Amino acid sequence: MLDLNWNDPHLINADLHCHSTTSDGTLTPEELAARAAANGVQMWSLTDHDEVGGLARAEAAAKAHGMLFVPGVEVSVTWMGNTLHIVGLMIDYRDSAIEQGLASVRSGRTERAMEMSRQLEKVGIEGVYEGALKYVGNPALISRTHFARHLVERGVCLEVREVFERFLTPGKPGYVPHEWASLPQAVQWILDSNGLPVIAHPGRYSLSPMQMDELIEQFIGLGGVGIEVVTGSHTVDEYREYARRSLRSGLKASRGSDFHGPEESRVNLGELPQLPDGCVPIWDNWAKRFS
Ligand code: AMP
Ligand code: MN
Ligand code: MN
Ligand code: MN
């Protein structure tokens, strides 16, 4: 057991959000664990999109590096016409309840990807589905990120971000709307597997302040318990904004890099600022879970 400072949980280096080759990351669970440990992470979670298939390997690797492991997942959700992500932390990932739900969310991805490819063909870019498949580590989980990597390789764009801006976001030629899990479903699957539902990177959604209030209220009503405050997808101003919302709503604060790979991610594993003062870290009462 690591000797962590549970009296001041803010000092624990927790990174509770990242992706492996089991979804749209470029490193394997073992490579991520090694990188996290080298960067001083003490408590680590792998949160692949709609998929728990990498968690057993991640758990073994985390233990070998002396890190506490938090089994996680990031569920894709459609809420009032917006795509949102809900992270589940501390899930019993061997439980079939969550796996069934996640399998249903994953099931439309291949058809969506083929439609994206057909749409891109119409603007003169052919064979993108086959090209994207070369980047896929898990055949059940083809994502827009794999398309983006392939289009960079083809020289259509210089970087992944540019592919999203020009082709893969609403209104752009390769964007195909998709119906993911509902918010109640995602929260319930996480609760059913004894996990803690957390709103991922709230600053990334195109919601008005009133819609964000509404989301948080509904989320709490369904049993949600946390919100990401310090994440690789937030600006410093957003750290402050969501720290305020965390305090106001009673949702506990989470922290995670959302690392996808050395070439693409702005924030490295474990290299995030601490949560702002006053926030209650979602891990503040986890000592007993690890004892
Ligand atoms: P999907 O689940 O297939 O819709 O893909 C969503 C993933 O695309 C996210 O988890 C990010 O990894 C990535 N993504 C979304 N928007 C952007 C963006 N603007 N720039 C780079 N990556 C993005
Ligand atoms: Mn992703
Ligand atoms: Mn996300
Ligand atoms: Mn993520």
- What is the count of helical runs? 11
Bound molecules: adenosine monophosphate, manganese (II) ion
CATH topology of the largest domain: TIM Barrel
Which second-level CATH architecture of the largest domain applies?
Alpha-Beta Barrel
Q: For the record, what CATH class of the largest domain applies?
A: Alpha Beta
Strand order in space, largest sheet? 1-2-3-4-5-6-7
Q: Could you give the order of the helices and strands?
A: EHEHEEHHHHHHEHEHEH
Give the biggest sheet.
7 strands, mixed
Uncertain residue segments: none
Helix content: 25-40%
Please report the total strand number as a whole number.
7
Mean pLDDT: 97
**SSE class:** alpha/beta
Name the CATH superfamily classification of the largest domain.
Metal-dependent hydrolases
State the shape.
Answer: globular
| Number of structural domains | 2
